[in-house]
Design a protein that fits this description.
178 residues, alpha+beta, four-stranded antiparallel beta sheet, three-stranded antiparallel beta sheet
Length: 178
């Protein structure tokens, strides 16, 4: 019933995952440092809560408009936020894929956001393997004609692969039941 308790519990769960990955990594010194991103959506009517660490994203599509709910936790995004790097130069920056926060990395900074649920909401969660190769307007175009979440995910993954697929590509689409 207390939203603050719920969002604090989400952040704490992410930090527990962070500690577990760091502990596992410490047991395997021969392996490279283990780290991962985390993007999670939990719907508790009438809200959707998004927990994020790293640069995987959550988008909200409603009324024909696509909005990125998460902020990429990269060094390049930090430089843009500080006014040191122009936003249009971020994609070409050598820091665009350098994580400032990740589960298992030096630091994890879980962020929680929320959005009001409506019957026609569409949420897309994805790794940066998609967004490196597919632009936001192309994602919006795919979601605007969505009839099957599975088929739209496949089309977006295929598009990213056709354009080079230089990273892992994960895409999940969710919609409230109506």
């Amino acid at each position: 019933s207390e939203e603050g308790e719920f969002t604090d519990a989400l952040r704490e769960a992410a930090l527990e995952a962070h500690a577990a990955v760091r502990a596992e990594s410490a047991l395997k010194p021969e392996a490279h440092r283990m780290a991962t991103t985390l993007t999670l959506l939990i719907a508790v009517w009438p809200w959707a809560y998004v927990l994020q660490v790293g640069d995987s994203r959550c988008y909200h599509f409603h009324g024909g408009e696509l909005r990125q709910l998460t902020r990429d936790q990269t060094i390049a995004q930090d430089l843009v936020d500080q006014g040191v790097l122009a936003p249009e130069r971020m994609a070409k920056s050598p820091f665009s894929n350098v994580l400032a926060s990740a589960i298992g990395a030096e630091s994890a900074l879980p962020e929680v956001s929320r959005v009001k649920l409506h019957a026609r909401n569409i949420f897309l969660l994805c790794s940066d393997g998609l967004t490196k190769h597919v632009k936001d307007d192309e994602i919006a175009a795919e979601l605007s004609v969505l009839t099957s979440s599975e088929q739209s995910c496949r089309r977006l993954v295929d598009l990213a692969l056709e354009r080079g697929g230089s990273d892992n590509i994960t895409v999940l689409i969710g919609r409230p039941l109506t």
